[in-house]
Amino acid sequence: MTGLETIGITAAAKGLTDLVVKPISEVLNKRLDEPFKQLIFNAFGKYIHNYNERHGILKVLGMPEPVKLEDIYTSVKFLGQLGLGQFDPSKLEEAYRQAEKRRFQLEQCKKQNGLKVANDNKYLMVLGQPGAGKSTFLRRIGLEALKGKRGDYQHGCVPVFLELKRFTTGEVDLVKAIADEFTICGFPN
Q1: pLDDT digits (tens, 9 = 90+) for 127-165
Q2: Which of 6, 136, 148, 158 is deepest in the core (most CB within 10 A)?
Q3: Distance between CA atoms of residues 189 and 187, nearest Å
Q4: Which residue intervals of 56-151 are DSSP H helices?
């Protein structure tokens, strides 16, 4: 279990339903009826349950039981605008590969609480060597986002966790991948 039990999937589903109903109403330029809202609410309940089952626990080698993702403190080194300014985005991969150490090391970068960094910066680029905790960090952000106002992540959004290893062909259709994640849970088109 991952903390969503504490606030309840029902409360989380209601929060997410409220988050999306108004924008959908505005796009369609009409008020949504209760059966449609209930359909969205039910789909969010299933979506939260599925996300929680898939991403809410971490199996650690050498430990007999999985660990709740919430129980893992995630600290990050944050480069900020000053640190990122040292890298030309078009040459970022090349700089990473040519560094003597297989990571970015800036002396002025102190470790910070990952959720605080995510709350302070709406857009992040998460970099790190294999096994450094990038996916774990993003899964944790997703779990907190699902809790809505009761969670530690303060940006109103619906998280969709897509692993890059799923995209094995040259062409990536992110819209379809996101739609597929929601279709599984019964969201209406």
Answers
A1: 777 888 888 888 999 998 888 888 888 888 889 998 887
A2: 148
A3: 6
A4: 80-84, 92-98, 114-120, 134-146
Cβ neighbourhood burial of 84 (10 Å; 0-12, 13-18, 19+)? middle
Contact 48, 9 (CB under 8 A): yes
- Beta 67-68 vs 75-77: how paired, if at all? unpaired
Alpha helices for the chain (secondary structure H): 4-7, 9-28, 34-55, 80-84, 92-98, 114-120, 134-146, 174-183
Q: And the tokens for 57?
A: 């626990």
Q: Of 177, 145, 182, 175, which Cα lies nearest the Cα of 164?
A: 177
> How is residue 94 written in tokens?
């090349």
Say how far apart CA 136 and CA 72 lie, in whole Å.
9
Cβ atoms of 124 and 101 closer than 8 Å:
no
- Residue 16: name the closest of 123, 120, 159 by CA: 159
> What is the mean pLDDT of the segment spanning 2-13?
70
Segment 167-187, tens digit of pLDDT:
887 788 889 889 988 888 878
Comparing 70 with 1, the larger pLDDT belongs to: 70
| Phi, psi of 169, rounded to the nearest 5 degrees | -95, 170
